[in-house]
Structures are given as C-alpha cells and as structure tokens.
Amino acid sequence: MIAAVPLIAAVLQLLTRGDDRLDRRRLTGLLVGFVGVAVLVGLNVSFRDLGAVVEVGLVAVGYAAGPIIVARRLPSLPAVGVVAASLVLTALLYAPVGISQLPRAIPSGRVLLAVLTLGVVCTALAFLLFFALISEVGPVRATVITYFNPAIALLLGVLLLQEPFTVGSVVGFSLILVGSVLATRRTSALAGPAAVPSSSSWGVAARYRRARQRRSQG
Question: What does each C-alpha distance from 122 to 70, 71, 81, 109 come to in angstroms?
Fold first, then answer.
C-alpha cells in the first residue's frame, strides 16, 4: 500500500494543478514500478483488520501530500527546522500511547542501539535527504523512492536472513528499475528549473548547476 504513494502524489498534483506535470511516459513509469512492487512482494492482499488497512492508506496519502506541501508552502525554510518541528509534533502525539506501553525493565544495549539507529539514521537523516531530493527533482518524482522500500527490504532479507531470491524477485527488481527511470527522467522540454521556487534554501546546488549550464550554452 505504501508503494502506491507515487500514484497518489500524481493524482494530488493533477487535482491541485501543480507545476510538476505528469505526461504519458511518467505515468507509464509509475504504473510499471507499481506492478514491479506487486510482483516483488507477491499478490497476497488478504487482511484481518480493516482499520489497520485504512490507517496504512492514510499514511500513504500523508507520504504523498507531504512533499507537495513542502515544495509549495515551505520552500524557504531550512530543512533542519522543518524536520525537527515535524518530529517533535509526531513525538508529542505518540507520547501518551508510548508512555502507557513502556517496558518494565530497561531494554538491552542491542535494542537501544537499534532504536537509536532507527531514530537518527532511518528517520532524521532520511528526512533531510528526502527534503533535499524534493528540492532537486520535485514532489512527485521524489516519492518514487517508495518503490525501492520493499526491494531493499527483500534484498536485506536475502543477505542477512538467508531468505530465498526467486524469479519473481528478479522480475520485480527489473520492473521497479525500469519504471523508476521512466517516471523520473526529464525530457529536454522539462529539463529546466525544478518545481520548487528559487528561494528554496535546499536547491542552492541545483540552481548553481543550472546557472552554469546556461552560461555554457550561452
């Protein structure tokens, strides 16, 4: 369901008439990548808790809407501040549930290290990189990274947990790669500035490269 984020983002961009237009090639890439995810993880769509399915669906909508909001409403704010504010707000909302489920004993050092890694590397650092990616390629293209989440998870399972690497895995990986290239590659007509305004503090490097390209072409 999370892999549907790029498709949801494309629909939201279309409904809100965003600058990051979706042409036929990019739409084909999004669909091919989504099919690749389905092939990769299998077509087991059974569930027992409809509420949980709805919650994950809301997460997918949030993932899709977040980059669009950042690109349109918060382009001039520093990435660190936006990340810090969003994480603090999330921590406050989750605090009552988390406090009520605190373990009776202090977890082992291995568990604490795993939680620290998830918080610092997989959340805070990942947010900073994701916001930089939004600034560089636009909100819809940035969400294509969600196609690689199950692919990386499966690859880690093969390398670390000795899970099987099947033909479906190879086909799924290939479709994800092809779909992502189609969905994110810019045509010559679209090779101009990204969808983020030039005042973005995250797009300095991108603006510098574009200015250098214009000077060389001139």
Answer: 19, 22, 18, 18
User: For the chain, what are the domain ranges?
Assistant: 2-217
Per-residue pLDDT at 88 exceeds 50: yes
Rounded to two decimals, the pTM is: 0.61
- Dihedral of alpha carbons 26, 180, 196, 58, sign: positive
Distance CA 66, CA 60 (A): 10
The single-letter DSSP state of residue 19 is S
- Quote the CA–CA distance of 193 and 207 in Å, as a whole number: 8
User: CB burial class (10 A; 0-12, 13-18, 19+) of residue 210?
Assistant: middle
33 near 175, Cβ under 8 Å? yes
Using CA atoms, how far residue 114 sits from 25, 64, 120, 143, in Å, is 40, 27, 10, 26
Q: Map residue 138 onto helix, strand or coil.
A: coil
CA-to-CA distance for 129 and 169, rounded, in angstroms? 27
